[in-house]
Amino acid sequence: MSPEPIDLLREGLEGRLGQQIGFVAEIGHLRTVMRTALVDGGRTRENDAEHSWHVALMAATLCEYADRPVDSSRVIRMLLVHDLVEIDAGDVMIYDEAGRQDQVARKLAAAERIFNVLPSDQAAEFRALWDEFEALQTAESVFARAIDCLQPMLLNYLGGGAAWREHGITADQVHRINRPIADGAPRLWDLARELIDDAVRRGWLPD
Amino acid sequence: MSPEPIDLLREGLEGRLGQQIGFVAEIGHLRTVMRTALVDGGRTRENDAEHSWHVALMAATLCEYADRPVDSSRVIRMLLVHDLVEIDAGDVMIYDEAGRQDQVARKLAAAERIFNVLPSDQAAEFRALWDEFEALQTAESVFARAIDCLQPMLLNYLGGGAAWREHGITADQVHRINRPIADGAPRLWDLARELIDDAVRRGWLPD
Q1: pLDDT band at A116, cuts 50/70/90?
Q2: Which of B24, B86, B117 to mutate to test the interface with A (most CBs of A within 10 A)?
Q3: How many CB atoms lie within 10 A of CB B186?
Q4: Which has the closest alpha carbon to B26: A158, A13, A168?
C-alpha cells in the first residue's frame, strides 16, 4: 500500500513549518464533526467547521452587545479554536447534560493531543485561548460563550424548531441551558427570550 | 402558507439589532456554496463556510511567514468575510480564468447587496475589508490572498490530486495561478513548489 499524502507531507516537512502544516491538516477534520442543528432548510446538519466560522463572524458583528468591553479580536480567535477538541471528543448537544459531564475528560485529552501538534510556543498560545474559553473568567470568554449559545438557538428557530422537537426539548430547558447568553450579552438574552416565546406560541417548543 | 421563520425574525426585530441578526441569518447561506476541493478522504466537496474557517485559522498559525509584518487580526477578519459575495456570485475554481473574469461584476453586485444587510457603519467596515482583500494593496491583503491560494493547494495535495485530475489541471497552471503565494509568503511558496514537484513525481499532476 502506498503511503497517505498526509504521511508524505509529514516526512517531507521538517521542523517548525512541518509541525504547523501538520496542524493545518489535522484541524481539517473539524469538518467531519456533525452537530445537532439542522441547516440548509433542514436538509443537512451543521458541522463544527461551519459553526466555528459562523460564531466568529457573529461575534465580530455583535460585539457591541457584550456586557463588558471586549477585545473582539481575541473573542474571534477563541471562537475559531473553541471546538477543535471535538475532533477527538465529538460534539454533545447542549441539552444533553449527562453527556456533557462525561465529555469533560475527553475534551482535556483532546486538547493535550491536538494543540501539541503545533510548535510548543504556538501550542501554548492556542491552548491558552481554549482554557480561557472553558474557564469563563474573562469578559472575552463570557461573551464568546454567549455567542456560542445564541448561534444554535437562532439556527433552531430559523429551522422552525425541528431540532428541538426531534430531541423533545422544552422551553424551560432552552431558558435554563442558554443562561450564558444573559451573562455575556443581556440585550441578546432579551432577543433569545423573544425567540423562545415565539417558538412556544407557534408550537415549535412545548412550554 | 405560513410565513418563514426568517420573515418572522425580520418582522419581530426592528432597528439596528434586527439588521445585524438579518445579516447573521443571511451569511449562513455560505454553507451551501460548494467549492472544487475534495475533503474527508474524497467523499465530499468543501463548502465556503468550512474554507473560510480553515483559512482564518491557517493565517493565525502561519502569520510569521508573511513577507511584510501584518496585523494578523485584520488578516483573520478579512478571511472571515472574503467569500461572502459568493453567496450570490457562486464559487469559480481558481483555474477557470475565463469564469473568474466573468465573475467580477457578479461579485460587485453581491457585495452591494450582502454587506448592506448590516447597519450602514458596519456595512462600510465589512465592505472595506472585502475591498482591501480584492485590491491587494496592503501587506494584510497580500498575505491573506497567499493563504487563500495555499489552502486549496494543500487540500488537493492531501486528496492525492483528485480535484486537479478531475479538471485536467497541469503543474504549469498550478505554478502560474498560485503566484500570489510567492508575493505574500515566500517561505510558503517554497513549500508550495515542493508539493507541486512531489505531485508531478507521483503522477497526480501532469508536468
Answers
A1: very high
A2: B24
A3: 14
A4: A158
Which cell is B72 given?
494578523
Distance CA A104, CA A110 (A): 10
CATH architecture of the domain with range A5-201: Orthogonal Bundle (1.10)
Whether the Cβ atoms of residue A143 and residue A63 lie closer than 8 Å to each other: yes
d(CA B117, CA B163): 35
Give the max Cα distance, chain B.
60
What count of residues does chain B have?
Answer: 207
**ipTM for this prediction:** 0.95
Whether the predicted pLDDT of A41 surpasses 90: no
Q: Best of B16, B61, B127, B197 to disrupt the A interface by mutation (most A CBs within 10 Å)?
A: B61
Task: Give the pLDDT of residue A1.
Answer: 44
For chain B (207 residues), the mean pLDDT of every run of 10, in chain order, is 62 84 96 91 91 98 98 98 97 89 92 97 98 98 98 94 92 96 97 94 91
Task: Answer yes or no: pTM beyond 0.80.
Answer: yes
- Domain ranges for chain A: 5-201
